[in-house]
Every structure is written in structure tokens, then in C-alpha cells.
């Protein structure tokens, strides 16, 4: 994998070349990664894969014009060609009054905080194979499971280095470990599939393989013999593994570039009480071993925990430097980028604070409703907030889960859905976006 010291040196060399070719300002980013995975199926080895990548990108500024370019060749000859092309492209690029590096007085500087993202344990292929076998065996042991799509275990490591012409230099290194199982229950046309998986920074934080496998098997079996829902309006409970997508739509609508383009359903609603009183959604880039923890953002600004929603109100927009200039606000440390292209905007470790009632209590109040465990399709209009997605899950009758249902659509508007959110107390910090079970009343169901 790309060595951090080499990444720093290559980025610095690329910036020198860019200045020699006429760039007035520039930044360079090198990204390296390696991954290894083992998959098994029906107790036999299916595949062993290993990959390594290294890319370097350059963004240059000539006045108010800019261009970016990237390559996977880090040799001196390749970097010289990269710098020459980037500056030539910038000279004929359109004017952009908002383009530029981050303000120098806002840059973060070393030493950077360590959030324990790098696990020193690097598993062997034999270790990964044993994990994959264990998770699949546990899934296949569930009564009713008839076939397997496989069990897998993987390890990855990444290194990202950012260097700017005005004084920033930083590198982040992190690891990831994952296990998963996907199995089939039933026979013929009645077959149902489901899965479970886990991703952690450190191997010791992964759940036991038997738990992941058993959950995958039980989920598949629980979906057998699904019924259909009649069209109408009813309460909907979102399981945590799908409920995070609602927060994802919120984050997309809070993005500074979306606000600047006037393509967000949150336009004009900053400071409004869009959620129930007391509800908080937090973004914490400093969580120890967090899947998206980071000390600095994609432009070299320091990151900091913040509330995205506080007491039911959106606290402001998430801005890179360019979108901040366009909106007349301060950048928020949410810039994100890869080796190529200009910075975008992303959050880090997000969670919605839980409610004070159990999921069973939320469900017990529902006479006729549905628990959603799977969503499909992309039917969300980010300009209007209109929401429509395919779904499957479990019927709720008389305050209890009655059986699986499938092939229906749920619809509403995100503004109305946010306003009516009721939260359970079952929050678990196992994803990059974590939510408890979430109940929304009065959604439109399109079924039979």
C-alpha cells in the first residue's frame, strides 16, 4: 500500500511542478488502499481477492480559473506531465469567483488527534477464511434456510494525504474489518433471501460470527410466505437498518452546494422547527474508532462535533469553502474529496438521539400498520421532498407484528415525515449513520 511518507513527498513534488508551470495556488491529494477478502459458499472456498491501488490528484488555480486532474502513475515523469496538463487546462477554464483554497487562517495543523482508526492486526487469508466459514455455518444452521449465497470476511487499509501550496500537510490512515452472510430460505418460487453484516475499524469490535450468521438466517426465514397490503394510509415503522436513509436525505438537503444551486427542499427553512421538539441529530467526526472519523476535512480545515438538528431545528448548511463563499457563510469543515475532482460535502459519524420508549411500545399503539425492513428504488425528489420508494417488511395488526408483507410502495413528503417522527430507544452505534426505530404516521401505501 502507498506509504504515508512517500505520499507526502509525491504531493509536495507535484505542487512544486504546478507552481513552476504557472499555477498561482494548488493542492494535491494522494490516496492509497489495499483490501483482501475471502468468500465461501456451502462450506467451500469460493474466492480469495487482494487489490492495491494508488492515485494522486492535482487541483490548480490560475486567477479565478481552476482545473483538476488525477492519475495512478506516481513517477517523476508522470507528475511532470500531470502538472503541465492541469495548468494548461486551468488557463482555458471558465471563470469561477468562488473557487480557491481554504482560508489560510482557518487551516488545521499537526499534530492531529488520533481517533484509533488504525488496527495493527492484519489478518491472514487463513484467518479470513475461517471467519467466512463460521458466519456461513451459523446462517445455514437456522431451521428453514435451504441455500446460501455465501459468507465473507474482509480486511482493508487506506491512506489519504492532502498537501496545499499555502501550508497544509496532513495524512490519515485507517483500517476496516467486515464479515457478512447472505442466505436463502424456502424452495422454488417461494424462496426468500436476506443477510446481515458488520463493518468495524478494529477486528476485536466485530460481533461474533455466530451472531451475524444466525441473524442472517432468521431474517431470511422470517420473510417466508409474505402477504400483500391493501392501498391506503397507515403508520409506518422504519427499522434502524433502513431508517438511516431518511437522515441521509436530510444531509443531502443541508449540503451547501445543493442550497447554492437552489435544489434543496430545505430552502428557506433554516431555523424552522422541522422535527419534533427536543429531537437532536449529531455529527461527530471525533468518535473513537468511528467509521468516518477524521481530524481534518478535504480542504485542510479542522473538524468538530456539531448538531445538525437541535431541538427540532436545522442548525445551518454544511459547506465546503466554495459553497460557503457562494452562500456568504463560513465553511463548516465538511469538505470531502478523493484524488480527482473538486471537494464535495459529506458528514462523518451521524446519529439521531433515541427516544424514551421501546420499539414494542411504538408498535403496540398501532392497530393497522407496517414495519419496514427493506427499501428499494430511488424515488426521492430532493427539490420538493416528495418521497416514494418500494418496500417490504412486516404487517402490524392490533399492536403486534403479524407476518411478512412485500411488493408495496410507501409515499409521503419528507417535511411532513420529519415533523411526525417518533423515536424508539433502540439506538446502536454500528454504522456511519445510526438511528433508532422510527415511526411515521399517516403514510400512503400503494399495495393491492
TrEMBL record:
One of its GO terms (biological process) is proteolysis. One of its GO terms (cellular component) is cytosol. Residues 332-354 are annotated as: Disordered. Residues 31-90 form the Metalloprotease TldD/E N-terminal domain. Residues 231-447 form the Metalloprotease TldD/E C-terminal domain. Residues 119-224 form the Metalloprotease TldD/E central domain. Pfam families: PmbA_TldD_1st, PmbA_TldD_2nd, PmbA_TldD_3rd. GO terms for molecular function: metallopeptidase activity. Belongs to the peptidase U62 family. This is TldD/PmbA family protein.
Amino acid at each position: 500500500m502507498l506509504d504515508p511518507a512517500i505520499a507526502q513527498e509525491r504531493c509536495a513534488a507535484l505542487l512544486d511542478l504546478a507552481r513552476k508551470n504557472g499555477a498561482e495556488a494548488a493542492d494535491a491529494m494522494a490516496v492509497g488502499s489495499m483490501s483482501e477478502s475471502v468468500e465461501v459458499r456451502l462450506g467451500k472456498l469460493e474466492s480469495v481477492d487482494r487489490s492495491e491501488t494508488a492515485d494522486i490528484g492535482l487541483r490548480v488555480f490560475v486567477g479565478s480559473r481552476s482545473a483538476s486532474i488525477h492519475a495512478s502513475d506516481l513517477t517523476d515523469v508522470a507528475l511532470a506531465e500531470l502538472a503541465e496538463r492541469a495548468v494548461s487546462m486551468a488557463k482555458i477554464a471558465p471563470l469561477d469567483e468562488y473557487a480557491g483554497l481554504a482560508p489560510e487562517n482557518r487551516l488545521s495543523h499537526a499534530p492531529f488527534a488520533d481517533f484509533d482508526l488504525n488496527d495493527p492486526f492484519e489478518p491472514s487469508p487463513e484467518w479470513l477464511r475461517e471467519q467466512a466459514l463460521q458466519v456461513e455455518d451459523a446462517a445455514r444452521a437456522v431451521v428453514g434456510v435451504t441455500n446460501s449465497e455465501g459468507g465473507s470476511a474482509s480486511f482493508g487499509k487506506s491512506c489519504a494525504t492532502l498537501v496545499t501550496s499555502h501550508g497544509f500537510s496532513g495524512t490519515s490512515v485507517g483500517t476496516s474489518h467486515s464479515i457478512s452472510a447472505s442466505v436463502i430460505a424456502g424452495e422454488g418460487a417461494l424462496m426468500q433471501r436476506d443477510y446481515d453484516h458488520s463493518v468495524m475499524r478494529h477486528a476485536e469490535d466485530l460481533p461474533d460470527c455466530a451472531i451475524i450468521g444466525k441473524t442472517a438466517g432468521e431474517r431470511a426465514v422470517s420473510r417466508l410466505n409474505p402477504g400483500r397490503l391493501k392501498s391506503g394510509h397507515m403508520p409506518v415503522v422504519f427499522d434502524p437498518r433502513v431508517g438511516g436513509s431518511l437522515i441521509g436525505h436530510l444531509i443531502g438537503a443541508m449540503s451547501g452546494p445543493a442550497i447554492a444551486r437552489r435544489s434543496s427542499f430545505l430552502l428557506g427553512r433554516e431555523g424552522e422547527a422541522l422535527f419534533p421538539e427536543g429531537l437532536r441529530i449529531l455529527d461527530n467526526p471525533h468518535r473513537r474508532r468511528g467509521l468516518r472519523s477524521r481530524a481534518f476535512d478535504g480542504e485542510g480545515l479542522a473538524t468538530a462535533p456539531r448538531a445538525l438538528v437541535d431541538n427540532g431545528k436545522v442548525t445551518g448548511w454544511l459547506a465546503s469553502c466554495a459553497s460557503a463563499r457562494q452562500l456568504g457563510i463560513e465553511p463548516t469543515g465538511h469538505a470531502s474529496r478523493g484524488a480527482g475532482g473538486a471537494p464535495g460535502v459529506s458528514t462523518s459519524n451521524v446519529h439521531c438521539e433515541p427516544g424514551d420508549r421501546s420499539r414494542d411500545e411504538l408498535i403496540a399503539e398501532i392497530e393497522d400498520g407496517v414495519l419496514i425492513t427493506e427499501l428499494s428504488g430511488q424515488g426521492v425528489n430532493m427539490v420538493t421532498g416528495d418521497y416514494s420508494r418500494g418496500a417490504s417488511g412486516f404487517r402490524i395488526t392490533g399492536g403486534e407484528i403479524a407476518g411478512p408483507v412485500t411488493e408495496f410502495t410507501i409515499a409521503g413528503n419528507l417535511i411532513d415525515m420529519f415533523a411526525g417522527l417518533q423515536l424508539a430507544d433502540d439506538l446502536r452505534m454500528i454504522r456511519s449513520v445510526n438511528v433508532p426505530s422510527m415511526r411515521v404516521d399517516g403514510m400512503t401505501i400503494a399495495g393491492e
